[in-house]
Amino acid sequence: MLWITLLLFLVSSIIMAFLNDTAEPLSQTENRKKPLKVIKEGWKLIWDNPIIKRLHVLIIFEAIASVVWIAAILYVYVSEVLQKSESWWGYINTTFFFGLLVGGFIVSKLVHLVETHMRSLLIGSSFCVGLLTLFFGLNSIAILALVLSVLVGVVEQVKSITMNTYIQKEADAIDLPKIYGLQGALFSFLFGFSSLLFGCITEFTNVQLSFILAGTLLTASAIYLLFNRKAFPKTY
Questions:
Q1: Residues of the chain whose pLDDT is less than 50?
Q2: Taking a C-beta distance cutoff of 8 angstroms, is the pair 171, 138 a contact?
Q3: Which domains does the chain have, with CATH numbers?
Q4: Looking at CB atoms within 10 Å, which of 14, 18, 202, 218 has the fewest?
């Protein structure tokens, strides 16, 4: 499996070499900027744009809540709640990624519908992700866990695409690396800290409580989005 993974990475790297980048190259001034200055500019870009700033509130909630899908927690859920073998951890992962593929396919086929109802889709998919995560944690039926996993994947993909579309519509192309770079650092920091926190919750209480907390956080982020919906245009 490791050798196959290595081979796939090599093939993808070779394919990427043939990508045609039509973006304007950075100026010499941009290239010479110090890392701390770039980070500061990234924070300013996020803070000064009301839409991007509110989206990053969602990203913070998501970074904390998404740790329930890591192997360390999901495996405990499979073992203690579903009372199945470790192979079911693989089944849940597979169905989740299948859901991501389905969500991406749906968006690609309904582009016009998505673009004209962006705000509604973002709010609706945010609520769905939160509620489905709650149902997943409370569920103890193995087959139903697979169905819920697919549905989480579908709505998570729709939510992710909509959020990224908003960011890319609001920011200039030259500013996107600063925004996404800072976003990645913020997500990684929160994800790492939350892995420790939710790991302790799972260890000393029970794994279902971890999913309930994650689902509650995601639902709270959707409620926040609902109250701030006027900041988001319905379409571009």
A1: none
A2: no
A3: 36-228 (1.20.1250.20)
A4: 18
